[in-house]
Amino acid sequence: MDIYLLCLIVGGGLLALSLLGGHHGDLGAHPADAEHPGTGELASWFSLRALVSFAAFFGLAGVVGSAAGLSGPGRLVVALVTGLVVGALTAFAFRLARSRGEVSGAAARLAGRTGQVLVPPGPGRPGKVALTVAGQIEHLLARSDDALHAGDTVIVIGTDAGVLDVKAWDGRQP
To answer: Most distant CA pair in the chain: distance in Å?
Structure first.
C-alpha cells in the first residue's frame, strides 16, 4: 500500500466521520490564543481540521495522479500542492468563522438561544432539542425540570457535561 492510498483512507475516513458526526468540539481553538495574539493564526495551520484536510486531499491527489499516469516526482508535487492548498483553505475558513463567532465548541455560547423540543426529556433521561447554530440546525441533548412536549419552545439556561439545561419559554423576556 502506498502513502497516497494510506493518507486517502485515514484522512478521508476522519473527514467523513467529522462531516457525518457533526462538530461537538473545537480542537482547533486553544485557550492560549487569547493570551498570545498571533499564535492562533499559526496554530490554526496545524489544527486537527487542517491536518485531516491536508491528509485526505494529499492522498486523493496522489491516487488520482497515479491513475492519470503521473511519474513519482510529478505525483508528489501534485499531491503536496493539493494537500497544502486544501489544508490552508480549511485553516483560513475556520479561523475566519471563529473570528466571527460562528464556530465554537463552548456550550456556554448556547446559553440564551431558543429552540424546539424534538424528544421531550423525562425523569432521569435527556431529551433532544433543535437549535440554530451558525446557520445550521443542531440536534442536541437536553434536560429540563419543566414538563415539556414535542414542539414546545425552550431557552437554553446552561450546560452540564455536554447536555443542555433548558426551560420552557413563552417568548417574553424574564
So the answer is: 68
